[in-house]
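Researcher: Let's do a round of design. I'm pasting the structure tokens now; please hold your answer until I've finished.
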């Protein structure tokens, strides 16, 4: 049965459906970047609230600004903005639920004024973002705005119609300011340290270039809460669609699959009212940073630690790597000896239990998270998640050997040829530059880390370069698995 509002009453009893009347749900949030993670996380929490009869004035209107968002627009239109969230339990059990908290979707290139109209409506009180780490246009070394992106450059032209998320936010704030409408809160939900601070700084920098008066309004009036978000959400596959249709009778053009675990730690810093997220398990706190650093430096950095070495060792999926004791020992060693020493105390969290729980989550065979996904967009991930660990450990004179090997394995992976001589499809916004550098690794072992925009001055620090050259040489001479065994 094709998923739609009309089909809900006819779905089987083992498929959860909205218990609330969706016709009574009104928009309160505009969200940029409606992908799998947003639909497995923020939209799911709102659906929980609505199922309790709460937050019915906080419906989500999704916005896509990129060309490849058109497919999402088509699917959401065909399904009345409904989709199925399928939780994959380690024992093979699937738990499907139709999520109803998204009430509309706008494809910005087709009708930018419709997006601006929704954003300037006083009912819109939050604009949220999952636009990936690269969507914030941060120069990795200076920490300042990189305005060279073509969409940003186009948006800075006088009188330009917005094309980027930043362009829409600043233009919508300009219109609200001129109309005397209070500003919305901007809620970043991306995996970036201090995501609220980064969003504020980058969008403010953009506004300064575009419209100084709006920039002043933004800096004085707009709130940017920090948050930490966590749920493993692999890319939806045709097999996932087929399983949903065959086992539950639901034909869904773009379901979402995820693990059972979910966590959201949110700073209570909003410009006005907000949904009562705490009623459905969101941790509302005064300071997100300890939780955020825990997640970025243990979970996210460990994903990088297993991804390249696992791929080079012949694995395809994260669960395969984390069912191999050699890799488990390596990951726990990284977390215990390098990641954890850089963390402040995390209130209410048993870090030892958390780390072992991470291994269990990674090892879930049903999630089937591909190493190719974890290896993608490394230039936005390694500098934010792993290199801060390296720098803090160096400053304290502590161990960095495992982190160095992860960086070396990225350099080896970026050569775009595996240990059997087969091509590797490197997916990264800086792909051409990375591959070109990496292909000279053998004759110039420091070439890959000599890019100051990614690595700063690490290439001139012998405490890093000496073990890095040794690790890279070992990867070339004896391969990833034997290098791990030697370590």
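Researcher: That's everything. Go ahead.
Model: Designed sequence:
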């Amino acid at each position: 049965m094709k998923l739609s509002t009309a089909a809900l009453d006819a779905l089987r009893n083992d498929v959860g459906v909205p218990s609330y009347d969706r016709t009574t749900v009104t928009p309160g949030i505009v969200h940029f970047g409606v992908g799998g993670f947003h639909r497995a996380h923020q939209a799911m929490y709102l659906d929980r609230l609505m199922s309790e009869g709460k937050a019915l004035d906080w419906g989500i209107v999704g916005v896509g600004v990129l060309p490849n968002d058109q497919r999402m627009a088509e699917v959401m239109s065909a399904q009345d903005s409904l989709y199925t969230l399928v939780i994959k339990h380690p024992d093979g059990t699937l738990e499907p639920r139709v999520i109803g908290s998204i009430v509309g979707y706008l494809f910005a290139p087709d009708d930018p004024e419709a997006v601006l109209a929704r954003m300037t409506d006083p009912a819109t009180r939050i604009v949220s973002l999952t636009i990936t780490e690269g969507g914030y246009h941060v120069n990795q070394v200076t920490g300042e705005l990189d305005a060279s992106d073509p969409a940003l450059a186009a948006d800075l032209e006088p009188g330009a119609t917005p094309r980027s998320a930043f362009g829409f936010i600043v233009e919508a704030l300009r219109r609200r300011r001129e109309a005397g409408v209070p500003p919305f809160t901007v809620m970043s939900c991306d995996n970036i340290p201090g995501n609220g601070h980064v969003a504020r700084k980058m969008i403010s920098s953009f506004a300064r270039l575009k419209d100084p008066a709006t920039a002043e309004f933004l800096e004085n009036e707009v709130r940017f809460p920090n948050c930490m978000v966590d749920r493993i959400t692999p890319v939806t596959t045709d097999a996932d669609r087929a399983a949903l249709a065959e086992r539950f009778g639901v034909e869904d053009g773009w379901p979402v699959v995820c693990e059972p675990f979910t966590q959201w730690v949110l700073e209570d810093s909003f410009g006005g009212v907000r949904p009562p997220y705490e009623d459905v398990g969101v941790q509302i706190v005064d300071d997100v940073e300890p939780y955020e650093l825990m997640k970025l430096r243990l979970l996210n950095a460990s994903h990088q630690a297993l991804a390249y070495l696992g791929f080079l060792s012949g694995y395809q999926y994260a669960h395969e790597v984390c069912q191999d004791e050699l890799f488990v020992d390596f990951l726990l060693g990284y977390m215990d000896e390098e990641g954890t020493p850089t963390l402040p105390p995390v209130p209410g969290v048993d870090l030892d239990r958390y780390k072992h729980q991470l291994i269990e989550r990674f090892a879930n065979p049903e999630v089937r998270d591909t190493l190719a996904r974890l290896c993608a967009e490394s230039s936005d991930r390694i500098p934010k998640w792993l290199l801060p660990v390296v720098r803090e450990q160096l400053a304290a004179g502590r161990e960095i050997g495992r982190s160095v090997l992860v960086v070396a394995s990225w350099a080896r992976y970026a050569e775009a040829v595996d240990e059997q001589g087969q091509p590797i499809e490197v997916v990264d916004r800086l792909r051409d530059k990375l591959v070109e550098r990496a292909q000279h690794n053998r004759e110039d072992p420091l070439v890959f880390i000599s890019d100051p925009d990614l690595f700063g001055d690490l290439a001139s620090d012998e405490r890093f370069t000496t073990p890095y050259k040794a690790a890279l040489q070992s990867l070339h001479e004896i391969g990833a698995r034997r290098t791990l065994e030697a370590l």
